[in-house]
Write a structure and sequence with these properties.
This protein is of the alpha+beta class and 318 residues long. It has eleven helices and nine strands. It folds into two domains: 139 residues, no CATH class; 176 residues, Sandwich (Jelly Rolls). The termini are far apart.
């Protein structure tokens, strides 16, 4: 009788899809939704653990296959984990409500089952954890945005670099480089310059910004990234590059140089840090400064430098 009673309580606790969860080897919703499925089933701690694993893999290894493996593992094991989780909860409910069968049944239904609200609670937890982890990464490793985006672009892209953003407009003086830049969204880069990028690069561009990214291998910092956009509050590319090279002397910045390629007069310099090497090329056209940032991270293959030369040699003013 006790075993039958335990099965009844387990059925009450699990609720919807009891038969599927207790008999099937693979959970399809668990495969697709991983941590959110666990939040839906009120397994908040398990959901947080899975989210932390997924967050770590996506940000440190940046490999889609590792993420797929996590999805498969969750699909395979989540039913067994959930049944074990349910039994532990039921045992605790029984210990806390000895002899009160009505209360035990009620608690099993309340504590178990599913919760749409749990999904939103899980989403909020994930957002808070992401913010904390990104803050720790930035504080410890100095990760910041890679292309001096506007503040909104920084939130969307979240790339790494030593270039800072201004969060307080009072710190920013137009025409004076002090570690950060603003970019214009008013110019369509493709209308001003012809740029050929190797097919190995992934295109993440918008009208006002060319952004291409190439990844090599599974190591951390395995990318080379290209940004090309218009800088606000500057009209002389030589002045901007000179200021930037002086500012980044502590990062072994080179002296500002000038080079003409395809009748485009580039002013440029480079610097290095723990993440990799950064090249900044600027040119002036119609009293606007166009800045090309090319990042070569430390674990990239030799193709990155070859691609940098190819891209520069392809750029022509229209």
């Amino acid at each position: 009788m006790e075993n039958n009673n335990n099965e009844v309580l387990l059925r009450k606790f699990i609720g919807n899809n009891y038969d599927k969860i207790t008999t099937r080897m693979f959970n399809i919703p668990g495969f697709f939704f991983t941590s959110f499925y666990m939040f839906y089933r009120k397994m908040y701690l398990y959901g947080v653990v899975v989210f932390l694993i997924e967050f770590s893999l996506s940000n440190l290894l940046n490999n889609i296959y590792f993420s797929l493996i996590i999805n498969i593992l969750v699909g395979i094991f989540v039913n067994k984990i959930y049944v074990s989780f349910a039994k532990n909860k039921i045992n605790k409910i029984m210990l806390d409500n000895k002899g009160n069968e009505e209360e035990i049944n009620k608690k099993c239904e309340q504590v178990g089952g599913t919760s749409i609200a749990g999904i939103f609670i899980g989403l909020l937890i994930d957002i808070v954890i992401s913010a904390i982890l990104m803050f720790v990464l930035i504080s410890v490793f100095g990760f910041q945005s890679n292309s001096f985006y506007s503040i909104s672009s920084f939130v969307e892209e979240n790339e790494e670099d030593d270039i800072e953003f201004y969060t307080d407009e009072e710190e920013y003086t137009p025409g004076v480089y002090n570690g950060g830049l603003y970019f214009s969204a008013d110019v369509i880069i493709g209308d001003e310059f012809e740029v050929t990028v190797p097919t190995a690069f992934e295109n993440n561009s918008s009208d006002s910004q060319l952004m291409y990214e190439y990844s090599s291998g599974n190591e951390i910092f395995n990318k080379c990234i290209l940004y090309f956009e218009v800088v606000e509050d500057y009209t002389d590319s030589s002045d901007l590059i000179n200021q930037m090279s002086v500012y980044h002397k502590e990062n072994n910045a080179t002296e500002a140089k000038s080079e003409i390629i395809n009748n485009v007069n580039w002013n440029w310099f480079s610097f290095t840090n723990d993440i990799g090497k950064y090249y900044y090329y600027a040119t002036t056209k119609d009293n606007r400064v166009y800045l090309l940032n090319y990042e070569v991270q430390q674990s990239t293959d030799s193709n990155c430098e070859t691609y940098r030369t190819e891209i520069l040699n392809s750029i022509k003013s229209k």
